[in-house]
Queue: 2 jobs
Job 1
Amino acid sequence: MKVTILGATGSIGVSTLDVLARHPDRFDIFALTANSRVAQLASQCIRHRPVYAVVPGEAAANELTGLLRDAGCSTRVLAGERSLCDVCTDPEVEAVMAAIVGAAGLVPTMAAVKAGKRVLLANKESLVMAGPLFMAAVAESEALLLPIDSEHNAIFQCLPDSHGRPLRDGVKKILLSASGGPFRTTPLAELASVTPAEACAHPNWRMGQKISVDSATMMNKGLEIIEACHLFAVDQQQVEVVIHPESIVHSMVEYADGSILAQLGNPDMRTPIAFGLAWPDRIDSGVPSLDIMAVARLNFEAPDLERFPCLVLAMEAARAGGSAPAILNAANEVAVAAFLEGKIAFTAIAGVVAGAMDCVEPTEPRSLEDVQAIDLEARNIANNLVQVRVGEQQVQMR
Ligand code: NAD
Ligand code: MG
């Protein structure tokens, strides 16, 4: 199977390459793409020999071409969003790992969907932004959409499947696991002064910075509620968030007869990645066996909504539908970036998102262009709200 990895240099991209390299007889790498880490992408090309490598612009392309030429690597270098789409839609490509972070993943992921590929969806933001359009495109193109997000992969595994299309009959509820992140028990008064490094230090998972901050605010779980509603055609009330600090039960599905099915495993993304790559087969992922005796105890509790206002905002967006999830997502990306740059406090993230959701007029997006226009408007408003907060902090410091 020929595979393209969007976002090859990220946490998911690197784990995907690890799984692929264990099965050279089964998979070939067609293209690898990256945004900024050109040297890392060059080493990946030298090691895995894809046909194409894609970077954002001319300067990065020249740098990568030089590095590959010096190493005698024949990978062809392309640049720009159009090329990102081309390496997803090429007739030779069978599977696309969508692992770009954030809204930047929308256009190439949708291109892979429209071309009817096996789409391994890690980039939850694209589904959050454009859910109904995304799922309509999946239905029309008969793309095989396999969730990589560990919770959704677990749910997929717990649903009886019919040729990849999950059945809903008899499904009562989805129990969506959440670790609670690094601040689950931090005194509320201390949250305003937590640092980006503390927010990114997730207790169970090693991930990119943006999703790590989202896990700390639990916006990640909010985005995942929206993701679950689209993937499994359930409404928000059927998705219950369960705090499970050990991250061993990746999610559960409750049926009308009282059965609850769960998927368990070590917290290692190579399990859902291997599942997505090989489905319906099962292949080695490199993940060690779960030592259930060593785990010994599993804990579950309800989320504290006062501690996690971003979760509440996302639940509201899930209920509202239309443009609300795209506004939520765009404002969150701006707020998280501002927090990581040290411009706003951790606790200001929810305020920026709430402010943007109040300011942007809700609409019903009918096309990808509509979604992109909403995304841009929400980003502009969120950036203004960040500036206001920066100004307020400067006044306080004087
Ligand atoms: P990351 O930050 O480690 O990697 C992001 C990748 O996207 C990098 O290769 C980067 O070069 C690329 N990228 C970033 N901006 C880009 C742009 N503007 N254009 C093109 N490429 C760009 O992120 P990650 O942790 O690997 O997460 C990737 C996606 O997978 C996210 O949507 C995240 O929510 C989802 N996800 C990640 C995990 C995890 O364990 N890391 C788990 C579940 C879901
Ligand atoms: Mg997840």
Note: The longest helix spans residues 368-397.
Job 2
Amino acid sequence: MTLRDDGALVLFSGGQDSTVCLAWALERFAVVETVGFDYGQRHRVELGQRAVVRGALAQLKETWGERLADDHVVALDALGAMSDTAMTRDIAIALDEKGLPNTFVPGRNLVFLAFAAALAFRRGLRHIVAGMCETDFSGYPDCRDDTMKAMQVALNLGMDQRFVIDTPLMWIDKAGVWAMSEAIGGAPLQKIVVEETHTCYLGVRGEPHVWGHGCGECPACRLRAEGFFKWRGSKPVDDA
Ligand code: ZN
């Protein structure tokens, strides 16, 4: 892996996907900063895991510890206030008539990327690394590759920059995310992903499953668990 001398800003929620993206960036960039967004999400427990995961990754490899730099948390209360969804209010998760889960906060990733680019501009970071994925994207249109490319063009025009939005998970499924973390950091990274990252939409930590913490029933937990068992080459999800 050739180390790039430019810097990256990783959209880091404390979840599985963004943790693998952070490890991916730490392998590539000389300076890696992280940004998290607090918009009143119901699974706010993931924000509390951010520092834990960052600390664990910094310990995992000496080079990672040297490259991992500042963390930023941006409060986006307005996003939560404007969004009448299951993610921010205490209502059941369901699918709408277009098959979109009501966990979708409209435009959420577009807002995240705009704030991330403004921060990257200030920090002199060229790469913006994000965990959007078109394969298991749950119907979220702001996770699509075309959306990311359009956003990159808009940000570069609007800020007169040459940002690159990197989405290393775009074309792989959840089993592929497990495989990627194993390829990057082996068993020690898998242990961090399983034990410390948070995915559950309901914000449940609870007793650990073999695939990590969570309620085991919400769409995010099921995707994570199914990906884990597919990756491990065995089935059933019924030990959840
Ligand atoms: Zn869950």
Note: DSSP finds eight helices and five strands in the chain.
